[in-house]
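Changelog note: in this version the structure field was regenerated for every chain. One regenerated record is shown below for reference.
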Amino acid sequence: MTTTSATSQIVSALGGGSGIDMAGLAKSLADAQFAGRIDRLTAQSDTLDRQISAASTLKSQILQLATSVGDRVRQGDLSTQPTIANGAVATVSRGVASGKGTYSLEVTALAKGQTLTSPAYAASTSPVGAGTLTLKFGTVSGASFTEDTAQAAVNLTIASGATLADVAAQINGANAGVTAYVANGADGAHLMLKGKDGAASGFILEATETVGEEGLAQLAWTPASPGTRLLSTAQNASFKLDGLAMSTASNTINDIVPGLNLKLTGTNPGAPTTIGFTDPGSAVGTFMQDLTSALNELVAELNKDADPKTGDLARDSGARALRTALARLAGSIVMPAATAGQPATMADLGLATNRDGTFRFDSARLTATLKASPDGVSAMFTTGLFGVYASLDKLGRSVTAAANPGSLTGSISRYTARKTQLSEDQSKLADKQEALRARLATQFAGVDSRVGASKSTLSFLQNQIDAWNNSKN
């Protein structure tokens, strides 16, 4: 103890009658005066350090758990996922709903956009004249053009002195659905124009020239224009799903059937491929076992920290909030829109709570749920507003919310504030202790001087007496 040490130093400073260390005595007395208060503040500071560490560990564990679950759900194998036998024809992904069954897919044409080139110019810096270029959108078929009035025409004002590169930049700046760039071909520089996918997104280019600055007419184009400037005609994707002919302007078709998104990438005329859906049952079982183990690790840490006799968070509001949330976890509704017979809680997935607050995995419960409603199980493993991940994410955010003084974050903030105040108190106490030491040192210095003078006088008198005694002899 500091108090005992300070007392020992005082005794040592007094010596055994051979003189007194006044500076050491002043320091020892000052230490003894404040030792009890310093010990109390140090003990409080150590406790706060442990409380901050314990609350931070629990906070980190619950947030890490929610993050890990989110990462795992995003892998996709915990919900029903579509598969395709011929991956060169299309890529498949899970739609909004849970899919099931099998489908055949035959793609005869992919959607593409129109590609148009200009006549050859000497360079990208070649002047093109001045006036107005007008883009009109619609369907190009042979030598005819049918305008789509739902798509507004775009007028581009070409300034005097504009170059081929300037025209490309102006078309891109209009954000009209046509992109442009200048390419250097074997015969010179060409303005390249590319439209959006889909037959109705073809386009023509009309020109109105400024008198005296002609030249824009070279860029104008319609299907009736001579030459081979049309490099690619806009078209829709054409395919059959289960034998039904379909056509779309895009190669990406979302939720074409429940739970199925398609992105067409190739053709397979006359050779349909099969689309099916995976069974996530095995992966869900493994996940729920892992989740149960992770939750029990969290409970073990919480039990240690919140132990009524030895826990640093025995009376902590954040720890209590976490314990309450964990106790309700298995039975809480995580799928509020679930219909009768569909799983709605994590208990339906096999998560069970023991009387001591720990968790166990009920495989029989999960097996029954998977058999009764496999689609419902799949729906619980998404990163949407509801489901397993959303529930754990909400739990993590609620028990660590900075705005809630009763959360773990609130506890950490409170303990940190107390630690800061303790540091200030310790600093003030140290200043007072130093002030007392300095005052005592000054006082003791005067005493030491007077004692020294008295010893000198006594020594002189003793010497005189000894001299007188010697002379008598």
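Spot check on this record: The chain has four domains: 2-40+429-472, 48-76+280-412, 82-110+237-277, 113-232. The radius of gyration is 43 Å.
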